[in-house]
Amino acid sequence: MIPKLEVTGVSYSYHSLDGETLALSDISFSVEPGEFVAIVGPSGCGKSTLLSLISGLISPEDGEIRIDGIPLSASSPAIGYMLQKDHLFEWRTIFSNVSLGLEIQGRLDASAKAELREMLTSYGLQDFERAKPSELSGGMRQRAALIRTLALKPDLLLLDEPFSALDYQTRLAVCDDISSILRSTHKTAVLVTHDLSEAISAADRVIVLSSRPGHIKAVLSIVFPEGCESPLARRNCPEFSNYFNSVWKELKTYE
Ligand code: ADP
Ligand code: MG
After folding, report:
1. For residue 236, with 0-12 CB atoms within 10 Å meaning exposed, 13-18 middle and 19 or more buried, which class applies?
2. Which domains does the chain have, with CATH numbers?
3. Could you identify which of 47, 118, 121, 155 might form a hypothetical disulfide with 126, taking C-beta atoms 3.0 to 4.6 angstroms apart as the criterion?
4. Which amino acids bring their CB within 6 angstroms of ligand 1?
5. Which pLDDT tens digit goes with each residue over 70-129?
């Protein structure tokens, strides 16, 4: 099977007047179709840089990124990118926020509108179609941002600390919601987070990065028994603390 995403020997430096900052060094991994991979690492280790590279916003100095086997530089794959801040426009209603991408692409026809309404209903936002973002809670706003992202039907979702602006309880609930939505729609996702519990509760695999320049320290497969699929269920499984300790051990040895 061709991997959805292949990152091979990727390095990246930022250049500024003060000199050069090597942010990432020799990163290689791949993600299978439908897989949910989490990347954890200390603040400043290059996690956001890695997602910017995968999204094609910036290009690697060394190495290559392929999506569906095709170099990123030679294709324009459907990538959804979700950030910590929801970037909803305050002057637009929730419906006109979630439909914005489709509107820009000229694809907002009657069936697309019906599909958006279905998504709003399944994510519990059906009564907020005409509301402004300021009338919604943080968790609801983040769900609206997810609908806006998914409406463009991306094959690959990049999530950069999408829950970190939420309070703890909301964060658990929204992480649970979003990961079950992604799993039921068989989306391939790469989640970047500095929260190891979040990574272990959501992912099939956790990639641990070192502090800057980020390189891969460890890759752990996360397997939970049947009945422990959702993030909340996983947190209550006995295996959770074993995985937590394994990832923690990798993270705390700074080198
Ligand atoms: P993370 O998301 O893991 O916190 P980033 O990918 O944002 O880390 O940043 C990695 C490193 O690169 C950091 O040390 C940061 O200071 C540096 N960096 C990020 N963006 C820039 C930039 N535009 N110019 C210079 N250095 C940058
Ligand atoms: Mg970041």
Report:
1. exposed
2. 5-77+155-252 (3.40.50.300), 89-152 (no CATH)
3. 121
4. 14, 16, 21, 23, 41, 43-49, 212
5. 999 887 788 999 888 888 999 999 999 999 989 988 999 999 999 999 989 988 899 999
- Written in H, E and C, the secondary structure of the chain is CCCCEEEEEEEEEEEECCEEEEEEEEEEEEECCCCEEEEECCCCCCHHHHHHHHHCCCCCCEEEEEECCEEHHHCCCCEEEECCCCCCCCCCCHHHHHCHHHHHCCCCCHHHHHHHHHHHHHCCCHHHCCCCHHHCCHHHHHHHHHHHHHCCCCCEEEEECCCCCCCHHHHHHHHHHHHHHHHHCCCEEEEEECCHHHHHHHCCEEEEECCCCECEEEEEECCCCCCCCCHHHHHCCCHHHHHHHHHHHHHHCCC
| Ligand that lies nearest to the alpha carbon of residue 45, given by its number in the listed order | 1
Tokens for 58?
């910036």
What is the rounded distance in angstroms from the CA atom of residue 93 to the CA atom of residue 105? 19
Structure tokens at 140: 């609801």
Going by CA atoms, what residue is nearest to atom 26 of ligand 1?
A: 14
Pocket test residue of 49, 55, 211 for ligand 1, highest count of atoms within 8 A of CB: 49
Indicate which atom in ligand 1 lies nearest the CA of residue 43.
4
Which pTM value belongs to this model? 0.90
Q: Which ligand is nearest to the CA of 42?
A: 1
Backbone phi and psi for residue 66, each to the nearest 5 degrees, phi listed first: -120, 145
